[in-house]
Design goal:
binds adenosine-5'-triphosphate; binds adenosine-5'-diphosphate; 7-stranded mixed beta sheet; 2 domains; homodimer
């Protein structure tokens, strides 16, 4: 047997997965690290804690698998987008890794949106203007921590930092670079205007390489710890969104990947970079002729968790006592309510929202309440609202890349048959749930095999994934959803005028200490 | 001792109260009758069941009190507004009493609002255009049940029917007449245009009399049953809203009566009829120089009941097991949340709304949800939302009659200290809760004493009522409420554009049988 390792550096853990050349998982390690949220809107990680977790993960997998010499062909990386680390002259971190979830640059992102520069940059970088991007974070740091900013010799992301520590080489793949907001997707190079707006120069950034680029020559002490041949090729890999599409076999035109985990996303592959005139969707590089266009949403399964914890606390206890999954119990309650929740509409923006409205001040709402509505209606409306929101992202995507033909769906939501069927019914599309649980790591491994010539084409991934479930849309639900979605969309627009006001109120009057 | 009886003919029961001349309750009977709701939007009562209940109530009170001859000076009536009964040539009912809660004339009320005729009529009648009014019901019956309509010789309300049965005299007091939508408050007579729009003539209506008008000569068989001297004077009395103001001593300028029972109202007395250019408030006659301007709201305590029954069903059971009042338990939960519910705003329009938005399609909503909001926030937001709504009625009233100076508050809500304090805080006014539990019956008895010359002035009522509670506004809450009320109001306007759409959806897709 021959093998490939996919490493998925996520927000709360790194997943290290050993695959055989049939795409079967042969080893697995999940190594956690803390997310630091010392002040409001902060979301940082310690790059050295991540580095240790990666070493631990690889070590665990390698020791356990005990592979024959020469059978491990390579290691390929996925990493979360948008992280920023400031390094000094010696490549030592001056900051922690500021993650995508960090919102402290909100003021500067707003400015870019308002003064029109954001639109100019988006149209070249394919990266929506948002506090999550390194572009916004650089402006924020330059303005609010100038000493720190001026001390920095290098500006990198977590993957670049890890590669540097392993190989002593500072380079960045197009896909990760793409998501910084500093990379021009048409010239495939750092964008001069973006660099100027950020206040940095080209020579403060890593060298750009393709996602299929290989590196060898790992430092021998690390190789020794892990138990890996130091000549094993490492493939740069890409960022997690594009690799997730690959890992669920959503790389053919029209095949849409929908994820509802804690957050969510809708993404589709095109062969050329595409821009949304309204700036609602991103366009990120995966590999030559593969670009991923899509929208990330904050409010996925985390909203269902809120419904369970806050609106169904007593039932959650009941489920615990019954030793059944509390989400399953809630799903059963929701299933008793008809499609459309008897006209109760939920906007799921509990945590602000990225795509499609890109409004960090957005808030959740229930609309249409009558005395016949119960909490059971609320849980169903919440599940529907999460899907309506993803559907509006799909509608934005359609304007850019055309009609979808089918959906590959993943994430924790897929444990609920009701929720999967809702996705099919609201999108009016066939929905397939792939069997492989670690799509992003599989995407990384597949890209690695492609880079090494072990497969001819990325579409080989279809042989790697099984099918867990298939759902066809139920036409009986169409009248309800077709009537409610337009109301949902018009309301989103109506409510937008008050999001800033209520968010300002909450920032001013809600005591920080009360925040959970 | 000398005595007076106040009879309050309500929507679900008649309350018969015996007062001494110090305004102290000396006897009481509450006699129920059913509300018929055979089809959606119907709300009817059987006039003869009401008549029997009144006879039963008076009999109970008289037999129990066993008064000395000549000490009962009179009986005075309050009745719910807007009821309509069709009578034949022999004064026999052709219909049940169609109550204020009946919404079947909605189409015709909408038409009046839309074609501008409604506004013309409102400006003369002081009665908002709404399906509740006899005006709307007459148009509805003429169009949808022409045979029945044409058979009718007389169009009366419940009080006129009762008086006719007791005395053989068909007459209607200005106050009840005022609320039909057919009465011109400036000419103090039926309005020709309104009669024409309704499609009836002046001679199909009872004779108009003042609210202080006396009748004697009760049919002796009824007098015998009740045990009352047939020469006892009966005072016509007024409708329940105006008499409630009197009964809580809210008759001086600036003193506002706020009621939160199942529904709610905000009302204030002026010395001249006043009209709201925006048509949001009613103006009803009480007595010479006393007009009551105000707004009725559908969504009072019934919304708190919904929160309890639907959102807090488990806690309701807990309260039952603890043998404590479930509303008290919920109030305690709400009290733990800061004023302003951490920026969660609730529009209480679960049952459509009358004042101030007059939109039967209005629906409830929660706005501003974040992941830190819990059900405890929802219950507090609901209590606050009910008060915000009443406050917006107050703002409309202010435009018509000027700033309030203090509040007299009544209704089931007054059992909650938290809710009473909220009223003081949101209105920024001192709130007094009178001790007398049956304000409307006391108002009727007071008007009766005034009519009989037993008191010189209606303001004598102040000696009749005690004070149960006083609340002063707490300035610490002002910043929260002053920030949120404007958002609440702007949202009301924003959401209005979708009320009809969601209500149409609910009418079309929610199965009638599912309605509770
Ligand atoms: N302990 C309590 N705390 C708070 N609110 C209460 C309490 N008890 C009752 N209520 C509220 O009072 C409402 C009932 O009010 P009330 O008893 O005045 O009703 P009603 O006479 O049917 O009303 P209406 O006068 O509108 O017909 C309930 O729906 C509830 O909201
Ligand atoms: N049995 C279930 N039924 C429905 N939804 C579920 C179930 N279990 C988990 N979920 C949803 O999945 C979410 C977690 O998704 P997951 O993909 O595991 O998270 P992450 O994005 O953090 O990797 C939960 O917040 C919940 O909404």
């Amino acid at each position: 047997m021959d093998y490939m390792i996919g490493v998925d550096i996520g927000t709360t853990s790194v997943k290290t997965v050993l695959y055989d050349t049939a795409g079967k998982m042969q080893g697995y390690s999940n190594n956690l690290y803390p997310l630091y949220q010392d002040v409001p809107d902060m979301a940082e990680e310690d790059p050295d804690e991540i580095f240790s977790a990666i070493i631990d993960g690889m070590t665990t997998v390698m020791r356990k698998a005990d592979l024959k010499n020469g059978t491990l062909h390579g290691v390929s990386f996925s990493a979360a987008m948008h992280s920023l680390i400031l390094l000094d002259d010696d490549h030592k971190p001056l900051t922690r890794a500021i993650t995508w979830a960090d919102n402290r640059a909100v003021k500067y992102a707003d400015e870019l949106r308002e003064n029109g520069v954001g639109k100019q940059l988006y149209e070249k970088t394919g990266t929506p203007i948002h506090p999550m991007t390194p572009l916004s974070k650089l402006i924020w740091l330059r303005n609010e921590q100038p000493d720190l900013f001026n001390q920095a010799r290098w500006f990198v992301g977590i993957k670049e930092y890890v590669i540097y520590k392993l190989f002593g080489v500072l380079q960045e793949d197009y896909s990760i670079a793409n998501a910084t907001g500093l990379f021009n997707i048409f010239s495939m190079d750092w964008d001069d205007q973006a660099l100027e707006v950020a206040g940095i120069t080209r020579d403060q950034l890593p060298k750009l390489v393709d996602t299929t680029d290989q590196i060898t020559g790992m430092k021998t002490d690390y190789a020794g710890v892990i138990g890996i041949d130091p000549q094993t090729p490492f493939i740069m890999g890409a960022s997690d969104g594009p690799l997730a599409n690959l890992g669920v076999n959503a790389i053919d035109p029209g095949v849409v990947a929908v994820t509802i985990g804690t957050s969510g996303a809708v993404r589709v592959v095109t062969d050329k970079p595409k821009i949304d005139p309204k700036g609602r969707v991103f366009c990120y590089y995966l590999s030559k002729d593969h670009w991923v266009v899509g929208g990330p949403v904050n409010n996925g399964g985390i909203v269902f968790r809120w419904v369970r914890d806050q609106l169904f606390a007593p039932e959650k206890l009941t489920a615990e006592q019954m030793q059944i999954d509390s989400y399953d119990l809630l799903t059963e309650i929701a299933a008793k309510i008809p499609a459309g929740s008897d006209g109760l509409i939920f906007h799921p923006f509990l945590g602000g929202e990225r795509a499609p409205i890109w409004d960090a001040n957005a808030r959740g709402s229930f609309f249409g309440l009558t005395r016949t509505h119960s909490r059971a209606h609320m849980v169903r409306a919440a599940l529907e609202g999460i899907v309506y929101n993803l559907y509006t992202v799909m509608l934005a995507l359609e304007e850019v890349v055309g009609k979808p033909s089918s959906i590959q769906a993943t994430g924790g939501f897929a444990r609920s048959a009701l929720w999967r069927q809702m996705l099919a019914d609201i999108f009016e599309q066939d929905v397939t749930i792939p069997e492989s649980p670690e799509g992003t790591a599989l995407g990384a491994a597949t890209l690695g095999m492609y880079a090494l010539g072990m497969i001819d084409d990325l579409s080989a991934v279809k042989n790697f994934i099984g099918v867990a479930n298939v759902h066809h849309p139920n036409p009986e639900t169409f009248p309800a959803y077709r009537a409610l979605v337009p109301i949902y969309i018009r309301l989103s627009r109506q409510l937008q005028s008050e999001y800033k006001n209520i968010a300002d109120y909450q920032r001013k009057y809600v005591h920080k200490s009360d925040k959970k």
